Amino acid sequence: MSLKTLRLPPRIKVLEATGAIADKRIRSINEKLYEVTSSDGTRKYKVYVDLDKNVVYSNDNGTRLRGYVGYPIIAVLMLNNKLPFNEKISKALAGIPWKKLNEKYKKYYIVEKIVKNIANKKGVTSLEIDRYINEVLGKLKSMKLYYDENLGETINP
Predict the structure, then answer these.
(1) Low-confidence residues in the chain, pLDDT < 70
(2) What pLDDT score does 1 carry?
(3) CA angle, corner 127, sides to 20 and 124, nearest 5?
(4) Please, are residues 149 and 63 in contact by the beta-carbon 8 Å criterion?
(5) What angle do CA 84, 135, 116 make, to 5 degrees?
(6) Between the CA atoms of 95, 156, 144 and 96, what dihedral angle is there, to the nearest 10 degrees?
(7) At what angle do helices 98-105 and 108-121 cross, to 10 degrees?
(8) Concatenated DSSP letters for the chain?
(9) Which residue, among 43, 107, 34, has the nearest Cα to 75 in the 3D structure?
(10) Taking a C-beta distance cutoff of 8 angstroms, is the pair 111, 99 a contact?
(11) What is the pLDDT of residue 17?
(12) How far apart (Å, rounded) are the C-alpha atoms in residues 126 and 34?
């Protein structure tokens, strides 16, 4: 079994996960397996989470290719009460075209600024968002998650 320790994700991925929950893009297949649909609806990510072993799998690029905890895993952990989730912030992030913004601006800090402006118009301050991101990343840092690429063969027939 080849396990890799996953790194902390870019800050924006916390917001992307929170937005995915608001948009109801996470579907539970069973207690450990989920399907997460991308913001533009073109991709479906398979996510496996086994917190008894701290083993996770997701076929999103951030997790698979870049070695950090991708937003689909973060969203699943939030839905399972393993990471903090903020309903107010989630509602403010509903309907954001993440993929389009990330591809257009190519820099997460620019996308984060845009997203904060959208949330601000819906009554959520940048300070609230920064505190939330720090809280989620702090908890995630303490979790030590391992990526098992071999799980892809069993859950992606």
Answers:
(1) 1, 156-157
(2) 54
(3) 55
(4) no
(5) 95
(6) -10
(7) 140
(8) --EEEPBPPPTHHHHHHHHHHHTT-EEESSSSEEEEE-TTSS-EEEEEEETTTTEEEE-SHHHHTT-B--HHHHHHHHHTTSS---HHHHHHTTT--HHHHHHHH--HHHHHHHHHHHHHHTT--HHHHHHHHHHHHHHHHTT--EEETTHHHHH--
(9) 34
(10) no
(11) 98
(12) 31
State the residue range of the domain holding 105: 3-155
| Token pair 């996770």 in the structure block, residue | 56
Whole-number Å distance between alpha carbons of 139 and 91: 22
Q: Which residues of 53-89 are buried (b: 16+ CB within 10 A; e: fewer)?
A: eebbbbbbebbeeeebbbbbbbbbbbbeeebbbbeeb
For residue 64, the model assigns a pLDDT of 93
- In angstroms, rounded to a whole number, what is the distance separating the alpha carbons of residues 11 and 28? 25
Tally the domains of the chain. 1
> What six digits make up the tokens of 19?
């937005």
Cβ-based neighbour number of residue 116 at 10 Å: 20
Amino acid making up residue 104 = K
